[in-house]
Amino acid sequence: MTEINVGIIMGSQSDWPTMKEAADILDDLGIAYETKIVSAHRTPDRLWRYGKEAAGRGLKVIIAGAGGAAHLPGMMASKTRVPVVGVPVQTRALSGVDSLYSIVQMPKGFPVATMAIGAAGAANAGLMAAGILATSDPDLAERLDAWRAALSASIPDEPVDQ
Ligand code: RP5
């Protein structure tokens, strides 16, 4: 059975369209992952258990996305030494600035690697997880290099009228 090294967690089902961007990147790169709804406010016991067991279960990166009062990434970082990559989900009321501020300003000692707001941030969280895993996985490092090279090659030299 393939070992799962990446956990994608999110505060709500409503976060999934955003967090799927991270999952799509991991799929592209052939990285196994799990997806869970873990809410800091609605399912705190689930959060606690997930954080307590994460390292022992072999997780090496946790991608955590939440919106609004987005306490999930920070609380997860307080519960496990496994690196947490935070994704501020874009909200309707405050466009995700609330999510960003809730995630990014962690106190010294418990870091969250905070990505950009929304879909780009979620995709970059997948790439950040891939980069972390690639430091000890030469095959993945090759796949990640190829992915990056393909993206660069896809960018035209000059703009065209649309
Ligand atoms: C947060 O509240 C979730 O991460 C989500 O982004 C936001 C709204 O959740 P729902 O009311 O859509 O379930 O905890």
Structure characterization notes:
The protein is α/β, with parallel strands linked by helices and 162 residues long. It has one domain (6-153): Rossmann fold (3-Layer(aba) Sandwich). It contains 6 helices and 5 strands, in the order E-H-E-H-E-H-E-H-E-H-H. It has helices at residues 16-28, 44-54, 72-79, 97-104, 119-134, 138-153, and strands at residues 6-10, 33-37, 61-67, 84-89, 113-114. The chain has a 5-stranded parallel β-sheet with strand order 2-1-3-4-5, with helices on both faces. Helix 1 (16-28) runs parallel beside helix 5. The longest helix is centred in the last third of the chain and has 16 residues, at 119-134. It is globular. Bound molecules: 5-O-phosphono-beta-D-ribofuranose. 5-O-phosphono-beta-D-ribofuranose binds at residues 11-12, 14-15, 39, 41, 66-68, 89.
